[in-house]
Amino acid sequence: DTSFTGEDRLRLRLQASDPEGSLSEVAGGLASQSGSGAGGSDNLRLDDVYYSFPIGSRVSAIISANSTVSDDFVTSTIVPFDGPGVGDYSGPMFYDQLGIGGDSLGVGFNIAFTDNLILDAGYATGRGQEPDKGIFDEYEYIVQLNYLSDGLIDAAVVYMDGEDGDGNGAEEIIAGLLSLDFGGFEIGGYFADQDGDSSFMGGVAVSDFLGTGNAAGIYYVEDFDDNEVAEAYYSMKINKYWSLTPAVLYGELDDNDDAFYGVIRSTFSF
């Protein structure tokens, strides 16, 4: 991360992980998993490449060259599990459902009409760097209207759509997100529809649980294919540089036997 003015950010990120699908029965797997390399081996790849900057006092913009799509364009994903949660579906999952753009070019903006009412919009392409394609061949876009308060209610409505590289339109997604904050005890979730198929999330989260900076939560998700994921996590701030998050993940994938996984995430901040 670097900045030219103190209010902007230029980010170049390298990312490495085990291949996708390390948790075979948990849809989505782990958050921030970078995917399979050659032959499914471990890998190191260039992930985020973007520049975000303000335009006046109420508008901000982002331009990306790689890996920026959907929820990267929004001011807030509303649900309190995004960040502390170890599973990818804490995200929430529907932001990744289209999976069309993001590998080439992305542009987006955020407009704050008031301190509480914010409009987000983003457009991402998947094959814009291929000479026989272009930025309008394979793409997805998102529009999200947020109400962000300093009190009880945070909420948003979302519309997503796109087209794959063969000229086929994706099935649009319409979603609503809600979080209710009762002073450190939050209830959050979403409901999303894609051509009659639904996905939903619900759960609770507690901030500063057994210590300042700690976070605990539990949530349940059912995706558009009726796969089920649940997670209970506890993020512990050991010191200002290091946090540990033990979690238990439950998954039932394609009506197979269900499975439980224990996971520990260690986060170092510099």
Structural notes for this entry:
There is one protein chain. The chain has 270 residues and is mostly beta strands. The protein has no helices and 14 strands. Strands 1-2-3-4-5-6-7-8-9-10-11-12-13-14 form a 14-stranded antiparallel beta sheet, with no helix packed on it.
Supply the key terms.
about 270 residues; mainly beta; 14-stranded antiparallel sheet; about 0% helix; globular
Short structural description:
This protein has 270 residues and is mainly β. It has strands at 9-17, 43-55, 59-66, 105-112, 117-125, 139-148, 153-163, 173-181, 185-194, 197-207, 215-222, 228-239, 242-252, 259-268.
Largest sheet, in brief, is: 14 strands, antiparallel
Query: Which structural class do you get from the secondary structure elements?
Result: mainly beta
Poorly predicted runs are 36-40
Strand content: over 45%
- The main sheet orders its strands as 1-2-3-4-5-6-7-8-9-10-11-12-13-14
The coarse silhouette is: globular
Helix fraction bin: under 10%
Radius of gyration: 19 Å
Would you list the SSEs in sequence order as H and E? EEEEEEEEEEEEEE
Number of strands: 14
How many individual helices?
0
Q: CA-to-CA gap between the ends?
A: 12 Å
Mean pLDDT: 89
Layout of SSEs?
Blueprint: E1 9-17, E2 43-55, E3 59-66, E4 105-112, E5 117-125, E6 139-148, E7 153-163, E8 173-181, E9 185-194, E10 197-207, E11 215-222, E12 228-239, E13 242-252, E14 259-268
Antiparallel strand pairs: 1-2, 2-3, 3-4, 4-5, 5-6, 6-7, 7-8, 8-9, 9-10, 10-11, 11-12, 12-13, 13-14
